[in-house]
Write a structure and sequence with these properties.
Number of strands: 33
Strand order of the largest sheet: 28-25-27-26-30-31-29-32
Mean pLDDT: 81
Shape: globular
Length: about 525
């Protein structure tokens, strides 16, 4: 692995003020609501939407696909940029639903930190655990937000214990809840010695903040009933003995997570969490390429595509490639070198996202995420540089766990279907395999819900009703090895061979036994369940 230089200079001010992070959680823990409040406090929107809007009440801004609005879940990671205090936040929303975990996995390669949202009543849930493991693989610093404290929730120590045990990470309280459920009054801000009181009357109002001189300040008794104040003092004394104090270095190395308590729907605890990201969160971090480590302060622009979103504007059939800038200062109109095609590309209409709104990005710095509209030239894993042939590593493509054939309702529209499927393959929304024998396509996904999403999108975006049908195959493996060996293998297994949208060879089967047999009979071949998406 390329080595990291140690004595680096301070980052240029514009780069140093960037904070690029994702929010991860189990479905329904309140991630989309929290995203909304971030935008509200960042001045990006005037009034937060509700996820399950009644009638035509405001829809939340980050879920713009029709299916997301109908089901109340986020299925595509969208990026949003906004200012908060002296910081520029780049927030990448991730789908919480486990059927979209691959999209989330790739999104986490483009951020420097993650916020883990947990539900105060449910604690650490299965999907949270999976996503946390991904953060762990990349040593991402994690800030934790325990949501829904205005509902009946579990004991604070119990929640902290569960995080420490299940996720094997130290937890330090950044705030401490006062009361819970109906009696939830607010929090004591441990890091700044402040009392934060929740306003239940107006959900979009920022909480009242009272600066106090420690837990013995007589002011506390004016705002907090005796029994709750007594419990707060006892709890905090115990917390100080049992739990580690906040240590920024340990947090940045991924060993310690600070936890804030609050209620996103009541706008409570959110501002403190945002201040925590700004004050303690990491600056844009170096990014790894196969050739070397790219430092954010380098003069030359380099970035990589970690997501492709099709038809953000259904009227224009456009595709937007989300690019994480790894280094340099980019200006609109700049020509960048597209490493995979070895061609220059003028980036004349780069966009910054405020949820579903876009604004032309006149400039962007390392750490920023910009969208580049294109007609299919850019795909996941592509590198854009000022001439250097870099290949960014760590963007995986996973073998699908569910495989189905797809047919167009109208057989005359087979060409249209092929175009739609290729687009989804390049977007990373599904794997599309063309069998070596016979016609048609086999579509592979990680979770069953993705078939519904694909069918719904093909119908809406291409006016093409389709149906998915079961196939005899249940697993796919990418095949690589010396050319003569591969050719012998292909000739002997024609009925099991397909090609993915990059033209790479894929072996389809129903039995693990088949995979084991090939590994045994063809030792020179490699059957892989993941493929690096490198240009």
């Amino acid at each position: 692995m390329p080595e990291m230089p140690t004595n680096r200079p301070a980052l240029p001010a514009e780069i140093a003020r960037r904070r690029t992070f994702a929010i991860i959680s189990h479905p329904d823990a309140g991630k989309t609501t929290l995203t909304e409040k971030f935008l509200l406090f960042g001045g990006a929107i005037q009034m937060a939407g509700q996820v399950r809007a009644k009638g035509e009440a405001r829809r939340t801004r980050s879920d713009f696909m029709k299916l997301e609005q109908e089901r109340g879940i986020s299925v595509s990671a969208s990026a949003m940029s906004f200012d908060f205090g002296r910081y520029r936040f780049n927030l990448v929303d991730t789908p919480g639903h486990s059927d979209f975990s691959e999209d989330t996995y790739r999104t986490l390669t483009a951020v420097d930190a993650a916020i883990m949202v947990i539900d105060g009543a449910k604690g650490v849930e299965s999907q949270t655990r999976k996503l946390f493991e991904v953060c762990r693989l990349r040593d991402l610093p994690i800030l934790t937000f325990c949501n829904k404290m205005d509902r009946e929730s579990r004991d604070t120590f119990e929640i902290i214990d569960e995080i420490q045990e299940n996720l094997a990470i130290d937890v330090t309280p950044a705030s401490w809840p006062i009361g819970m459920g109906r009696d939830f009054l607010g929090c004591y801000d441990i890091l700044h010695d402040r009392l934060e009181l929740m306003d239940r009357a107006d959900r979009n109002r920022v909480a009242e903040s009272i600066r106090i001189a420690g837990l013995d300040d007589p002011q506390l008794a004016r705002h907090v009933p005796d029994d709750l104040l007594k419990k707060l003092r006892e709890d905090l004394e115990m917390a100080r003995e049992l739990l580690p104090a906040f240590d920024r270095r340990s947090f940045l190395e991924g060993h310690l997570t600070p936890i804030w308590f609050g209620s996103a729907i009541n706008s409570f605890g959110v501002k403190e969490l945002m201040a925590g990201i700004g004050d303690y969160g990491p600056e844009p971090q170096p990014q790894k390429a196969a050739e070397r480590v790219i430092l954010p302060e380098e003069d030359r622009v380099a970035g990589f595509v970690f997501k492709v979103q099709a038809n953000m504007d259904p009227k224009h059939r456009d595709r937007v490639a989300f690019v994480r800038l790894a280094s340099g200062h980019f200006e609109r109109g700049q020509k960048l070198f597209h490493v995979r095609s070895k061609k220059p590309m003028a980036v004349s209409n780069p966009v910054l996202f405020l949820a579903a709104d876009r604004a032309l990005a006149e400039e962007a710095w390392a750490g920023d995420i910009i969208g580049i509209p294109n007609h299919g030239q850019l795909r996941i894993g592509d590198a854009l540089t000022e001439g250097e042939a870099l290949r960014f590593t760590g963007l995986p493509s996973f073998a699908p766990e569910l495989l189905q054939t797809v047919r167009a309702g109208d057989p005359m529209k087979a060409k249209h279907l092929e175009k739609a499927l290729m687009q989804f393959a390049e977007e990373g929304a599904a794997k599309v395999f063309k069998p070596a024998i016979g016609s048609g396509f086999i579509v592979g996904v990680v979770g069953a819900l993705q078939f519904d999403v694909l069918a719904s999108r093909i119908e809406q975006e291409y006016a093409l009703p389709v149906r998915f049908e079961p196939t005899q195959f249940t697993s796919a493996r990418w095949v690589t090895g010396p050319k003569p060996e591969v050719e012998t293998f292909l000739a002997a297994n024609k009925g099991h061979i397909a090609h993915d949208h990059d033209g790479d060879i894929v072996y389809l089967t129903r039995l693990q036994w088949d995979i084991d047999r090939i590994v045994r009979d063809h030792p020179a071949l490699k059957l892989a369940a993941t493929k690096e998406m490198m240009a």
